[in-house]
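step 3/5: co-fold with beta-L-arabinofuranose
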Amino acid sequence: MFRSHWLVLHCLVWALIALIGRADYPVASHRHLADPAAMVHEGRVYVYCSNDDDSPLDGGYDMKSLVCMSSSDLKNWTDHGEVIRVPGAANWATHTWAPAAIERDGMFYLYFANNGSNIGVAVSDSPTGPFVDPLGRPLVTAQTPGVLPADSIWVFDPAVFIDDDGQAYLYFGGNGEDNVRIIRLNEDMVSVQGEAIKVTAPAFFEAAWMHERDGTYYLSYSTQPSAGIRIDYMTAATPTGPFTYAGIVAAQPPANNNNNHAAEFQLHGAWYHVYHNRFSAIEAGLAPTYRRNIAVEELTHRADGSIEPITYTRDGVVQVGRLNPYRRVEAETFGQQSGVAVERCAEGGMNLTELDTGDWVRLRGVDFGAGGTIEFQARVASAAAGGEISLHLDDRTTAAIGTVEVAATGGDQTWTTITAPVASTSGVHDLYLRFSGHSEAFFNLNWWRFTPRQAPVVLSQPRDLQVAPGQRAEFWVQSDASAADVTFQWIHDGVVLEGATAAFLHLDAVTRNHAGMYRVEMSNEAGVIRSDSAELTVVAGVAGKLVNLAVRAPLDNGATLIPGFVLSESTPPGPE
Ligand code: FUB
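step 4/5: write tokens
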């Protein structure tokens, strides 16, 4: 019965793959990841996941590490590798399931489930770790005041949230509708305050998650198998309730199985839903139960604050930003791939490895600007006979715009930078890096970049924003200048903003004093360029503005064209 069920599903998925052509699904196809938790920090979303590649294929969730992926555009994802492994980083723990992470005062706190038994916390000064347990014991156990009494509670699946007043909360629990728990965290984020609060959620199974929007607190969770393993939600006017059941965030995803786990997050003004299913494993012909993968969809809040149930797509979300090829691009950043693997790099971060002839990575929406390219640089290491990287635009079978030869460097972590001339390229393209070589695993790639032909230009201008008092505003600019050369300086109504020296400008909790004209100056060796000015209007009861309109249209070559717009959200009238 179970086998025939999977056979039907397998056939359906293959039919789907044939239909979707070049779909962007899932987020990371070179790994198996599950239980995603999102943290947005400085214009990127960091998604922390259970590392399903730790588990035996034929059974048991034996994950002992957590992996982090991040993206600023939701199409190209950077693999940061394992950010914690136990028991090394927490010697009392045997497992790392279903994490959650948050930043406070420049430190990052990662909460994880030690299977269903208890919850630990680990700390780092970087969102990508390494994270280490500061306590030497779990943070929350069944003995934590307020967790019991409970009927067979799973003390797991933490979600962490900091409210506007600075109070932090941990949500957790599983296996029964009376088993949701909320406990306050102290300001140190590694100790709890008082007793856990008991919350009842209809058909609650696991995967609690909290997001707040316009003063409404959304507690989402996975329902029990008998209720369809959906992501349902409740709302409240405070982070601790009382909660009222409000409906469905997302049905059981296609190509999934016996659990569902999701998180909601806001990036560049729009909302998203990141979840797991078993698409990659089914596609690869693997037993899928313990080999999950993550995917992202847009999340829409209706005018009354309720959530529009997720529409599952096979092409993911509209790209929200372009990739700048003139700043160093980590090789472990890509949208799609075939045959590659990642590993820790002796120079820091990760590098691409296990390359075989025919392997490739695809970078989505690479903006070469108007000025054209002159050279390609790559940081490579090769213990073997070397090989080559060829560069292709829009399709991996198009004529190469350049090819760089890689010679042996003396070791697979002995790095050197090589260059090759490229045909001048401008405009926005998908970029394929295709690998070939003279032996197996012929070289490793740490990073790459293009050199522009002329002085930098602004690729994306900051846009006008209308924001209600107390809301967050975010301006963003992109130039084709290389990261190493360029310096940013934001200016508000002619006044230099101290410390505003990044491509993003975040203004938390805006007041009317923030209103006015914003521009950024970008300087490099070639001179200074000035962006257009964008206006920030601070007004209570901002009229409803378009959020996340995307139009999908099939193209002749099998790809899908998705022009999209992301504007600021509406805010109901109210006092300042
Ligand atoms: O990954 C192990 C468990 O599966 C998680 O803790 C649950 O949420 C379910 O996804």
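step 5/5: annotate
The pocket of beta-L-arabinofuranose is lined by residues 34-35, 50, 61, 97-98, 113, 156-157, 206-207, 259, 261 (CB under 6 Å).
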